Amino acid sequence: MKKLLLSGLVGLAMATTVQAEETTIRVHYGIPTIWSDAQAKLAEAFMAENPDVKIVLDGPAPGYEDGVQRILRESVAGNAPDVAYVGLNLWRVLEARGLAQPLDDFIGDEAEFEAMGYTPALRSLGQYNDTQYALGTSASTLVVYVNPDLVEQAGGSMEDFPSDFDGIIELAAKIDALSPTIDGIWTQRHDWRFQSFLGAYGGRPMTPDESDITFDDEAGFAAATLFQRFAQEGGMQSYDENSARQAFPAGTLGIMIESSSLLTRFLEGADGRFEVIVKPLPIMADPEDVYFPTGGSALVMLTEDEAKQEAAWRYMLFATGPEGAKIIVENTGFAPTNALVVEDEAYLADFYAANPMHRPAHEQVARFAGPWYAFPGAEGVAVTDLIAAAMVEVSDGGADPEATVRELADTMRARLDMPR
Description:
By secondary structure, this protein is α/β, with parallel strands linked by helices. It folds into two domains: 22-140 and 294-370, D-Maltodextrin-Binding Protein, domain 2 (3-Layer(aba) Sandwich); 142-291 and 375-415, D-Maltodextrin-Binding Protein, domain 2 (3-Layer(aba) Sandwich), CATH 3.40.190. Helix content is 50%, strand content 14%. The strands form four sheets. Strands 2-1-3-12-6 form a five-stranded mixed beta sheet. The longest helix has 20 residues, at 2-21. The protein starts with a helix and ends in a 5-residue tail after the last helix.
């Protein structure tokens, strides 16, 4: 009996030791329709390389907004996850409440970190006030979708496809003139699109400290003017995004400036009609000044426990490193947020061989990714509707772009309680 008791105690002690050596990390994510397979594969691959860490996936939130609200509720109850995937335009909500942990001490030497594929452009997706709070995990930017058949009918060619907006608008006008049932070009009147065109001209929506609006300048005027030129010269119609997303794969729209995240949908929709071609968004300023606001998600560390932080950081590096980025790209269709996975063919050579139109968007993210600016304060979300409305006035109503942008900026300053 004593031997049995002693044996049981030794077994319990060994089990306790093994359990103590294993660190459990809870991981939150949203949008299971896109992410569930990728999350399961990321967790499995990471644990295979890190047997001392157990990844437990929380039940997914329906979307990024719901997910952030859940995290806030759980933090109040003292039950927040250790690591969370959140929207690139939403992690600041967690930072503002002191929940997202600073990552700079974990990063250490910046040159070494950059050599691991974390370029300054990609790191900017998770930076605020010169501090790193998040690491990008997936990304989408604005790209130019082209119907090469309509381009050829209009007298153009993909070999000489224009690299600036003047050339694109001129080509769109020729496509628009082909038939009453064919439209030349389309893009949505939207805050994200305006910010993208603004970034292409080297502008920014706000000062770095978010104390003032800065898009009422030459870059902002040029960005707004594009919407008017698309309508007046390129044949852009005023139909909504759902209609446009049906028109392009149906073959009745020549050029569509839209999110890279829709590529798979367009490829499937146009299959058998025409070959979808993707071109990067034109660069209209010094490349060093250009940025493209990026949609997608980022990882934040929420745990304050030092032992869990070490394990959480290892998981974050894996998920955002080349191996994790490969899993995400192959299972979601998003662009990677690690430059090495694009540059080194060892990771995605087979993927790009089978999916060549993904490469332009992926290279654009690696080079020009920037934050999707979220305007501060209680009115921060509401004022984005003002931007969309102003772009409609410019494109459909013929309002003067410069005067409209100046008025928009002053209105937003008032709404956001900024100096005028």
